[in-house]
């Protein structure tokens, strides 16, 4: 126990960093993911193609490889950012591919008749997407997006490998001194569990509020 | 959980029949513990095979019934927690996974020769975060993993040794003239290897230094050269080896810590600890310790074989 009280400040700092990554990358990937979906269902071939490639690339390359590339290869190309922003950006683009897939499945729940109707009413493409398609598809995929956000929270731990001092990295360091891996990593696991639980419960609540009863 | 990643290296190193014959002969001649082959001048082992073939083997009387070493001998293989990615210490050849080289790896093989009369090591690749747990739950018999002996750790595991004294040094990009050692690192950004002694040693020496840690040594060097930090603190032998291979990097100042590496054992197993300490003394006297050093760390450092630290000289050992 004394290892927790003695390091309380450092641990809270680290949990703060983890939460910061979850929130910023979470919001970022939601916005980016929706934009990618819009591109993917748009009638412009080049946009559809680009969005398809984007999603396939980020779903098929491991996050760790992306992190290592961003941290060690980009500086050689002359692009060097501090570690935490780099990790957040990588998490954002990576998870946005999963958000895009989730939202796309939501788009498929919107009946074609609605889109025909909105066109008949004289709505432009952008209006149709913004007022008819996207709101309904988002409402349909609250729970899947919640799962993507939970995965995002767990994935933040990978940033420890590239030098970001978040929860996993911090407990590693504390374990080096105290040599009590079981207690230390169980504690970290419980914190991650609480974060996941909070996201899951929030998603459930939101879903009950916004779900469209058909 | 690591069973799928277990690596087996039975007598593979001893491919040549000649070597096997030599082994059989020495196994007889060095059977008793008081028959110690002369100093390191008698056998100038140029290869690992030779070193292992001439290594001492434990006397039968040492395997008391019910002891840990007896159980290991019954099993027929020594299960060791050691790294597969630590150059000069314990590194796996990616093209030939059977071949693990380095100081820690050679000592582990020497210990297996001591127990079985032939090398038989099963490696559980490290989780240096969980070495204590691996020992406590009996997944591995011993840990050879640049395992610095500390009093906190000694409450969880037992340490035989120390078997090597290392130290941390400072490396900087070759064009940096401002940093000349640990004393110049106050307020600087310092790169360290994750889970290395540097993680705790640097803040002790320089509380104002900011630490960034990377998982592997090549990553840390890359990060230093890309300007993510002002200096890189790591084991001086590793740094010397890096600097020898890379003109952009230089080592400044002398090592500023002493890192006594111990062999991790299950806590409280005094019998096994004595067995291993006796073995360490034996290979120090018979020269295999020095040969292992020459074949690994000695290849990048221009100095004589160092004096091995005396057994039990560190608090916690």
Overview of the structural elements:
The complex is a heterodimer of chains A (214) and B (317). Chain A has helices at 2-6, 8-41, 45-60, 63-73, 83-107, 112-120, 125-140, 142-155, 167-178, 181-210. In chain A, α2 (8-41) packs antiparallel against α9 and α4 packs antiparallel against α5. Chain A has a single domain, classed as MetI-like fold. Chain A has 10 helices and no strands. Chain A is mostly helical and 214 residues long. Chain B is of the alpha/beta class and 317 residues long. Chain B has 2 domains: 3-165 and 260-299, Periplasmic binding protein-like II (D-Maltodextrin-Binding Protein, domain 2), CATH 3.40.190.10; 168-252, Periplasmic binding protein-like II (D-Maltodextrin-Binding Protein, domain 2). Helix content of chain B is 32%, strand content 23%. In chain B, the strands form 3 sheets. Chain B has a 6-stranded mixed β-sheet with strand order 1-6-2-7-14-8. In chain B, strands 11-10-12-9-13 form a 5-stranded mixed β-sheet, with helices on both faces. In chain B, α4 (103-116) packs antiparallel against α11 (288-295).
Question: What is this structure's SSE topology?
Answer:
The complex is a heterodimer of chains A (214) and B (317).
Chain A: H1 2-6, H2 8-41, H3 45-60, H4 63-73, H5 83-107, H6 112-120, H7 125-140, H8 142-155, H9 167-178, H10 181-210
Chain B: E1 7-9, H1 17-29, H2 48-53, H3 68-75, E2 78-81, E3 85-86, E4 90-93, E5 96-101, H4 103-116, E6 121-124, H5 131-136, E7 142-148, H6 151-154, E8 157-166, E9 168-173, E10 189-193, H7 198-205, E11 210-214, H8 217-225, E12 231-235, H9 236-245, E13 249-252, E14 259-266, H10 270-286, H11 288-295
Parallel strand pairs in B: 2-6, 2-7, 10-11, 10-12
Antiparallel strand pairs in B: 1-6, 3-4, 4-5, 7-14, 8-14, 9-12, 9-13
Helix pairs in contact in B: 4-11
């Amino acid at each position: 126990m004394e290892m927790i009280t003695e390091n309380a400040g450092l641990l809270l700092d680290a949990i703060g960093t983890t939460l910061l990554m979850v929130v910023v990358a979470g919001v970022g990937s939601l916005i980016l993911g929706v934009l990618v979906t819009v591109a993917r269902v748009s009638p412009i071939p080049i946009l559809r193609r680009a969005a398809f490639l984007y999603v396939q690339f980020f779903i098929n390359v491991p996050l760790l490889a992306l992190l290592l590339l961003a941290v060690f290869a980009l500086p050689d190309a002359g692009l060097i950012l501090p570690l935490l922003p780099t990790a957040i950006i990588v998490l954002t683009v990576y998870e946005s591919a999963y958000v895009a897939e989730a939202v796309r499945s939501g788009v498929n729940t919107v009946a074609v008749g609605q889109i025909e109707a909105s066109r008949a009413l004289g709505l432009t493409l952008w209006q149709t997407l913004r007022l008819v398609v996207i709101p309904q598809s988002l409402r349909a995929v609250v729970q899947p997006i919640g799962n993507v956000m939970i995965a995002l929270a767990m994935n933040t731990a990978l940033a420890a490998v590239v030098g970001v001092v978040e929860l996993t990295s911090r407990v590693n360091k504390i374990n080096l001194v105290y040599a009590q891996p079981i207690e230390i990593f169980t504690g970290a696991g419980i914190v991650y569990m609480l974060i996941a639980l909070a996201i899951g419960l929030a998603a459930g609540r939101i879903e009950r509020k916004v779900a469209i009863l058909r | 959980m690591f069973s799928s990643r277990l690596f087996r290296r039975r007598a593979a190193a001893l491919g040549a029949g000649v070597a096997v014959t030599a082994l059989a002969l020495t196994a007889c001649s060095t059977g008793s513990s008081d028959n110690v082959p002369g100093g390191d001048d008698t056998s100038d082992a140029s290869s690992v095979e030779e070193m292992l073939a001439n290594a001492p083997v434990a006397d039968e009387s040492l395997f008391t019934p019910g002891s840990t070493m007896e159980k290991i001998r019954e099993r027929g293989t020594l299960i060791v927690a050691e790294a597969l990615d630590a150059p000069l210490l314990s590194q796996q050849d990616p093209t030939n996974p059977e071949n693990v080289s380095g100081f820690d790896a050679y000592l582990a093989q020497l210990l297996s020769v001591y127990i079985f009369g032939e090398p038989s090591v099963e490696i559980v690749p490290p989780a240096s975060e969980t070495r204590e747990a691996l020992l406590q739950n009996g997944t591995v018999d011993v840990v050879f993993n640049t395992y610095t002996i500390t009093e906190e750790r000694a409450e969880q595991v037992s340490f035989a040794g120390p078997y090597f004294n290392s130290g941390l040094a400072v490396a900087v990009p070759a064009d940096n003239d401002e940093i000349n050692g640990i004393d110049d690192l106050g307020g600087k950004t310092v790169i360290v290897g994750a889970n290395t002694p540097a993680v705790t040693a640097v803040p002790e020496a320089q509380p104002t230094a900011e630490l960034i840690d990377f998982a592997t040594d090549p990553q840390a060097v890359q990060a230093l050269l890309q300007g993510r930090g002002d200096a890189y603190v790591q084991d001086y032998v590793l740094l010397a080896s890096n600097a020898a291979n890379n003109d952009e990097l230089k080592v400044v100042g002398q090592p500023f810590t002493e890192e006594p590496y111990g062999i991790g054992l299950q806590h409280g197993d005094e019998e096994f600890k004595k067995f291993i300490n006796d073995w360490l003394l034996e290979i120090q006297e018979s020269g295999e310790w020095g040969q292992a050093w020459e074949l690994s760390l000695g290849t990048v450092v221009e100095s004589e074989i160092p004096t091995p630290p005396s057994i039990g000289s560190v608090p916690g050992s």
